[in-house]
Structures
1.
Amino acid sequence: MSFLQEAPQLSHPLHADRLLQHLLAHGLPAARRKAVTPDLEALADYAHMAWRRRMHKPAEVPVHTPWDAWGRRVDRIHPTTAWCEGAAITARHGLVATGHDGTIGPTGRLEQFIRVYLYHVASEFYTCPLAMTDGAATAIKASGNRALMERALPHFLSRDADTLWLSGQWMTETIGGSDVGHTETRARQDGTGQWRLYGRKWFTSAIVGEAAMALARPEGVDDNLALFYVETKDAEGRWNGVTIDRIKDKLGTRELPTAEIHLDGVPAWPLGELAHGVRQVAPMLNVTRTWNAVCAVASMSRCLALAGDYARRRRVFGKMLIEQPLHARTLADMQAEFAGAFALTFCIADLLGRVESRQVADHEPALLRLLTPLTKLWTGKLATRIASETLECFGGNGYIEDTGLPQLLRDAQVYSIWEGTTNVLSLDSLRVLGKSGLDPLRKGIDGWLKDVPADSPVVHAIGHALEVVQQRLTAATSDADKLEAQARGVALTLARAGAAALLTRNAAREPDDMRARATLAIFLDHGLLRLPAEDDIDAVRALCQP
Ligand code: MFK
């Protein structure tokens, strides 16, 4: 028998995750840590089991059955095994409910997103409808619509699988993915005054929910766009004015039944005024973008866990891979970037909880508003880079389907696309900077660096990055095109500056931890500035000519 390579093994997702252990130790008060630990243990055990199960059985995809044997339109979706378990796991661990549980206090969101981080990869993107359900609950609360709060929130926030409802997010149409302001779906009142929706939605990320939030144009109300709450099924559980045209054939997230649908009279209730739909949807977007970032770092964590384990099992050129300096450097480069992304992501999770429970300093709501798109866009891009490098760490085997590795790369590609592409979020960051400038971020960073000597090189590097961004913002105030062309560089630089400050704080908290110091050193070595050297918009345009 020729040589057989041992496959990589996944270590325990809670016990072996040093960054998560650091977060639990420093992010939660001791009493909360003690309260949540058994639940986190159980969820991590599930994730561990799901990985082993996945390695021993072929991948599944959901199946759409449009018609029954007798010719009735049924549009049944047969989900994968992990999806069949989703409602029970969600209810048991309060994956949505925890974030809205007023009895927990300001750490509720952090506790929720730690669970999401543990569950995400095992869930096979069941986290997508959970994100949208959380977003829907947040938007309904923000609307102050009491009837909808009483009707939908007990289901969205249920800790009982039998009463739990999921919500979809029906925004994207053929005319607009990013530019949802051009939505064509119409809302019309029937003879009883009930609003009903008519139109076509081109991406409904998970067509499984009992409810959905949909943008539509109310007829007879000038040229306005409004946000509606929709119930998708009738009392007998049949689709109510919804036809599933097909499940999308996607590059990744294949377990997730993303569908194209037609709406033909589905009942709907406006959240608030019959106008400013995009403004009403915004609270939802900021929550789902936080989910996106948490899920992106969860995917990175899985990549690094497998690549690191394999490097300790694989011997080449007479040494273990981990002992090969260049391979070790490659893993360390990935680990340092991941640690920065992890720190920034859980910083916004924590901030979200404190902003929602109004336990924040004055600058922190504006800080959260800026950091949310920055974190989403940076983690979205980084997830693909880390997944791609991970596959390379396995050589040819990383390219082979039944190792489970290619799926990591295919799935990672989604994070930079949905919930707003990198460029859309870069422009959103400019919108925020235009309103509140860099001051909230400066104050946030000052707070994270308060125990670090002001003359240390890292404080200087972060200060320099902010200064360069400020100069670019000031220089381009009279030239909107020039500023827009640099928006991605501005956003990435600010995200990296924030992450560097958090890594510095983390290293200062544990002065004997050599890993924390090494993480910071390597992250800084990758540089903070990501601004383009060339900000001449004419040159940019010239290069884009055929
Ligand atoms: C596993 C992880 C799970 C993740 C969830 C997975 C689900 C994925 C499903 C999807 O991908 S659904 C599709 C997601 N689509 C988007 O995210 C849309 C992307 N496009 C944008 O975000 C655009 O920037 C936007 C549609 C918001 C721009 O629209 P407009 O029509 O140009 O609106 P405008 O004038 O920029 O903004 C309207 C108002 O909203 C303004 O306020 P005012 O009316 O008071 O001036 C904005 O300030 C406000 N606004 C916009 N974005 C905001 C916001 N306010 C707060 N936060 C924001 N993010």
2.
Amino acid sequence: MSEVRAYSVKRNRILQSGIFNETLRGWQSSKCDVTAKNLMYPVFITENDDDEQDVPSMPGVKRYGVDKLRGHLEPLVRDGLLAILVFGVVDNLPKNESGDGADRPDNPVVRALPKLRRWFPDLTVACDVCLCPYTSHGHCAILHRDGTIDNDASVERIAQIALAYAKAGAHIVAPSDMMDGRVGAIKQTLVDHKLGNVVSVLSYSCKFASAFYGPFREAAKSSPAFGDRKRYQLPPDAAGIALRAAARDVAEGADMLMVKPIMAYADVLKQVKDQYPEYPVFVYQVSGEFAMIYNAARDGIFRLQDGLMEILRGYRRAGADVIITYYAPQILDWIRPKHKL
Ligand code: PB1
């Protein structure tokens, strides 16, 4: 046998024979599908019900008053949207040391929840629970006089806010503050108020002190007035403490876990999902990730649908069950069945 023949017979022929048509390629795919079930859409609600405000650093993303949000959500719900994550944005409510505006009856989230539940009975409504949009200092905690975190007071306050949103109609409360013990405190408060079996807790368990939150802070008007959030958000280089944070939240009764941001943290996602396969694991494609992808597509680096869906399928392959993404409207349009007339 010639040398070339001998080489070709011995060489493993595994690639082309496995992918030469669409069906074969589909069979090679891991669990990467992106369906409506895998999406949660973050939305910003302002105090004026007729607001519709652009967010310059997030083209296509807007802050809505609840009545305008209704009009925005109606076609998306028809397209199959199953879940939203609500953030309050306030200009008029007073901001103070304890974030009292977070759960006042005139808070835009508290006012919007009953309406959203009535208008969209099949839509699952999650509420971000945090102090930063409502504190005068813009941190996600109540602070001691010396500026250090008063964890116990913060946890108690966060649980109060979560209860207010639960009572107003939230299906899910999602504490993004990163305080130790807030998941257990929220769960206990919900149980004490007979809501433990009708309101779920989505913990921002592995949330990193990322560079990618800038556009959100513009949108939500929630930047810290001084310092940064490195004292309570995970170090970007960390992995061990991220897994310990997930373990802490599992022990405190979290119903669902999260890794946030996701672009630079898919390794953490895989570890969390491998460690807790019995938990739904969410990932948050944050504002900076949204903007980077948008600008790359605008500059012709890739076609938005091709690049974005490749990124999202990668998160699903790494273990994400649900992707929180500002791109939900576009994705729903791309994936919804196109009825051929
Ligand atoms: O899209 C984003 O950038 C999300 C930002 C995120 C919202 N949960 C937080 C990040 C931050 O500003 O530190 C807000 C903190 N409660």
